[in-house]
Amino acid sequence: MLISLAIALLLGAAAAATGRKLLGWIGFRPDSTAQEWSLSVCLGFGLLMVMMLILGLSHLLYENVIYGALLLWGGFGLHHRQLKIPRRPVPDLRQSLRSPQAWLLLIMAIVLVLGSVRAMAPTHGATDPLAYQLALPRIYLQSHFLSFEQTITGALYPGYLGLLYVVGLALHGPVVAQLIHWFLGASTCVAVYALGRQLFGRATGVWAAVIFAMCPVVTIFASQGYIDVGLCFFQFCAFSALFTWCRRQDRSSLLLAALLTGIAIGVKHQGLPTLLIGTSVIAVLSLRTSGWRQALVATSQYAGIALLLLAPWSLRAYLASGNPMWPLLNGWFGGLPFGQVPVILSGTERNPDASLLQAFGALIPTLDWVVRRSSEIFLWKWTFQAAGAQKLIGPYFLALVPVGILYLRRRHLWFLGFCLTYHFVLIRALHLNPRYGLVLFACLSVLAGYGALRLAEHPWRWLRWSFIGVFACSAVMNGVWLFEMTKSSLPVAPGRESEEVFLTQREPNYRVFRHVNQHLPEDSRILLQGIVKGFYCERPYLWDHPHQSVIEYDHYETATDLRRRFDELGITHVVRMIRIPPGRESLGFPQYFMDAYHEEFRKRHLKLLYRDESYVLFEVASAGKG
Amino acid sequence: MVKGTDNLRSSALAEDNGTAENGDSRPAWLGVIGLLWSAGILYHFYTSLGFVDLLTQVLGLGS
Question: Which member of A353, A400, A464, A592 has the greatest number of CB atoms within 10 A?
Answer without folding.
Answer: A400
